[in-house]
Amino acid sequence: PRPDRGIPRRVGHPRLQARQRPPIAVAPQFRLRTRQIGRESLCFISCSGIILPVQGLLHVEQNKRAGISRALRLVALVLLVTPIAADAQFSYVTNANGTLTITGGPGGNVSIPSSIGGRTVTSIGDSAFSYSSLPYGLTRVTIPGSVTNIGAYAFYYCNGLTNVTIGTNVSIIGQSAFGECQSLGQVTIPNNVTRIGDQAFWKCTNLTNVTIGNSVTYIGWWAFSGCSRLTNAPIPASVTDIGDQAFASCISLTSIAIGNGVTNIAQTAFSGCRLKSVEINSNAQWPFLGFTSLT
């Protein structure tokens, strides 16, 4: 409203009271002098980034007909805005080739979209969801098939994350991508993944079962270190290199089967484990094969 048409200061005068009308809707985003939001209450149509701003009290005129009419128009505004706001939950940057990298998003049970605004989502950025902790953090996440890269620290310390579904086209799981996700119980690494980054699942203390895809060639240092409840993690024949302390202090891991493609096992790869049996081929480099506590 124009400055000279604002709410009068002397509200006690009967004539001024007769001229004064309460606002239709008041929200923290609007000035208190606002009297009307658009003639048809549709003034925010096509604002693609808007999230519904009405959070305060809704004041409807005493006149029944006017009150019902304006309330219905407000409902129409909600219905128009809500579908647009779904993609607005995620922040992203545009890559040089026109694809998108997700840089953040909501908590709870989350399905990352495969595209936003017609552009394909191909990456989860570094630290995109890191420290998304309870009570409002991630609990489940589904990564679509369009994603090929999970960045470093992407889901680091999401301590309420219990389940993750990794898309079939992911090829790289970055450093500490799921480090200290202390509620994660099991994980399946798809067949397209070639590299499990250093500390990728470090200190996932509730992780019991890992299925490693048959294209993985490198398991990074400390990749599963400190996964104290891990009992099953067979290593496929595609793996050639197991890094330092990759499975260190996995105290529940009592047996391990290592595929015949492995040529290098770091000396401390399985340090602190309580292994009782190991299946391994003769191609791996010695000494000790990393089994410093083999019983």
Write up this protein:
- This protein is mainly beta and 295 residues long.
- Helices cover 9% and strands 19% of the residues.
- It is built from two helices and 17 strands.
- The chain has helices spanning 14-19, 64-85, and strands at 91-94, 100-104, 108-111, 115-116, 119-124, 138-142, 149-150, 163-165, 172-173, 186-189, 195-196, 209-212, 218-219, 241-242, 255-257, 264-265, 277-279.
- The strands form four sheets. Strands 1, 2, 4, 5, 7, 9, 11, 13, 14 and 16 form a ten-stranded mixed sheet that branches.
- The chain starts with 13 loop residues before the first helix and ends in a 16-residue tail after the last strand.
- The relative contact order is 0.06.
Concise account of the structure shown:
With 295 residues, the chain is mainly beta. The chain is built from two helices and 17 strands.
The percentage of residues in β strands lies in 15-25%
Q: Please provide the count of β strands.
A: 17
Which regions are unreliable across 5 or more consecutive residues at pLDDT < 50?
6-28, 48-65, 75-85
Largest sheet: 10 strands, mixed
* Distance, first to last CA: 81 Å
Rg, rounded, reads 28 Å
Structural classification: mainly beta
Pattern of helices and strands: HHEEEEEEEEEEEEEEEEE
> Average pLDDT, to the nearest integer?
79
Structural shape = globular
Note the total helix count: 2
**Share of residues in helices:** under 10%
